[in-house]
Each structure stands twice: as C-alpha cells, then as structure tokens.
Design brief:
Blueprint: H1 6-23, H2 28-32, H3 38-59, H4 61-65, H5 69-97, H6 100-106, H7 109-120, H8 122-125, H9 130-157, H10 163-193, H11 199-228, H12 240-268, H13 271-276, H14 279-293, H15 299-317, H16 323-329
Length: about 325
C-alpha cells in the first residue's frame, strides 16, 4: 500500500474540518426548538435535505444514471441509519440532557471509529500500530473526560436538574454513537470501491434516497400526532416560519454540503485517520453550545478542548503500514 501524500493528507484534513464546522450546526436545532418533538425535527431536517437534493440531482444526473440498484439500496441504508435514525437519537438526547453532555458522548466517535477501523480495515488501509495510535487516542479520551467532568460538576450544582432525564439523554446519545460508527465505515467502503465516482454525486444520491424515507416518516408522525389530540400545532408547530427556515438551513449546510466535504475527505484519508477527524464536529458543536449559553467555558473545558486538538494533530503524524511491510519488519 502507498501512503497518502502530505498535500493530499492536508487537503483531506481541511475538507474534514469544513464538514465538522457544518455538522456542528445539527446540535443547535434541538436547543433552538425545545418545544418541537425530536421525531419532527429529524423528519423535517431530512425532508428538507431531500427536497434540496432534487435540483442537485438534475445537475448530477449523469452520475446518478450510472448507479446500480445495489448502489441505491446502499444509499438508502446510509440515509436511514446515518441520517434519520442518528438524528432522532441525537435530537432526543439534546432535548433531555442539554447540549454539552450529548456532544461529549458523540465526541467519543473518533476513538470508537479509529479502533473499529483499525481492527476491520487494516488490510485495505494499512495498520496503524497501536503504539503510534495510543497517544492520540489517549489525548482525545482525556480531553473528552475533562469537558465531561466540567459538565457533571455544573449539573450537580443545579437544584432543578433531573438526573433521570439526563441519564436517558446519555443513553440516547450512545445510540447515536452506534449509528454514526456504522455510517462512516460503510460510506468509506463504497467510496473506496468506486474511486472514479464523484463525491458530490454520492452525497446527492444519499439526499435523493433520504427524501422518500423522511416523507414517509413525516406523514406517519403527522397521522399519529393527529390521533393523540394534543395541542401541538400541526403540521409545522407553533413557529412554522422559523422551523422551516432552520430545517432547510441545516439540510443544506449540515446534510448536503457537510456530507460532500466528508466524502472528499474520505477519498483522501485512511479511514482510521478520517474517523479521528470527526473531533472537529465535537469542537464546533461545543463552540456553538457555549455561544448560545452566552458564557465562556470553564478552564477544565478549555483544557479538554486543547487535548482534543493535540490528539488530532498527533494522529496526523501517524502513517499506516501495509501488512507486507509489517511482515517483512517482523
């Protein structure tokens, strides 16, 4: 296996950074719409994403025509698990536990994905020796622990805190981690198997595949809500204009453009390293959450962020080795 060139590595890293900045926006929606059910936010976001993808599909029609039935089935699986189910878990977690706690649980993704990829994809991407990988993983884990500890201290100091509600939020965030551990590994499999296919076309295909799933989910949720006889204003809630604007904004920037940038990064970086760069999403989400709180993070939080950044920088120094090289060295 030939290791990626340095310029390719840095280009991939910049694409991953752009994806993280946009993906961080998805943590803002549930905080700005606390009275909206998580299911409505998930279906609304991806219904918007699917509608945005329709005109883009016309531009990418030549690429989409080359996709086989198996490709569309794969796009549907990625759309369901990595989009709709993931955001349903995440929005539910944020509404129950606030922004920082689910953000930090999602922040374990670089560690979980790196370990999963190093175990699963070493034959394709080369193996990062655990000795080389350990410092970055330890730094990232320590940083997440520092930020999480600061949030726990604040939680215990709040007499209105509902510990059971926070615990449910944490469990839902873990469900989101499971979904988004599966998604980038499976998405990278398709991209690596089709190196000649444009990343933009694959992002658009996932948007097109999301549309019928989100539309069906929205209709089923609407029908179920109508039978419950609640006072929630159907179909778009008490702030329809703001809800629609937010859903389309997140659908454009976080869902389509973020996915496009991530696909570009995935085509340039080994999956193990790309997985660790999801830390950019965590940093962005934390920054947005504290801006909405209107206060500066605690020193322990700053220390944790510094460790996360240091862990990413360390990871970029590591280079995977092919199994043949490892065997020769042995």
């Amino acid at each position: 296996m030939v290791c990626p060139r340095t310029d390719t590595m840095w280009t991939g890293t910049l694409f991953a950074l752009a994806a993280g900045l946009m993906w961080g926006l998805v943590f803002v929606g549930p905080l700005l719409l606390p009275e909206y059910p998580a299911a409505l936010q998930s279906f609304g976001r991806y219904l918007a994403f699917g509608l945005i993808a329709l005109p883009l599909a016309w531009l990418d029609r030549a690429t989409l025509r080359t996709l086989t039935r198996a490709d569309w089935i794969e796009a549907g699986k990625l759309a369901l698990v990595g989009n709709i189910v993931y955001y349903l878990f995440l929005a539910s977690a944020i509404q129950r536990a606030g922004g920082p706690l689910p953000t930090m649980i999602i922040g374990t993704l670089p560690v979980v994905i790196a370990i999963s990829s190093n175990l699963r994809d070493h034959a394709r991407d080369g193996r990062l020796r655990w000795r080389a990988l350990a410092p970055s993983l330890l730094l990232i884990a320590a940083g997440i622990g520092c930020v999480n500890q600061a949030e726990i201290v604040a939680l215990r100091a709040d007499p209105r805190a509902d510990l059971e509600r926070y615990a449910i939020g944490a469990a839902l965030a873990i469900g989101a981690v499971v979904c988004w551990t599966w998604y980038p590994l499976r998405n990278a499999d398709w991209l690596r198997a089709h190196p000649g296919r444009p990343a933009r076309g694959w992002a658009t295909a996932q948007g097109v595949a999301t549309l019928p799933l989100a539309a069906l989910g929205f209709v089923l949720w609407w029908g179920w809500s109508a039978t419950q006889g609640g006072d929630f204003a159907l179909p778009f809630g008490p702030r329809p204009g703001f809800f629609l604007m937010l859903m389309f904004s997140i659908g454009l920037f976080a869902s389509w453009l973020g996915t496009l940038c991530w696909n570009e990064a995935s085509q340039r970086l080994p999956t193990t390293l790309a997985g660790q760069l999801i830390v950019f999403e965590t940093l962005s989400a934390l920054a947005y959450a504290f801006m909405l709180r209107g206060r500066v993070p605690e020193p322990l939080t700053f220390a944790g962020i510094a460790m996360l950044v240091a862990g990413v920088a360390w990871a970029l120094r590591a280079r995977p080795q092919s199994l043949a090289v490892e065997g020769h060295a042995a």
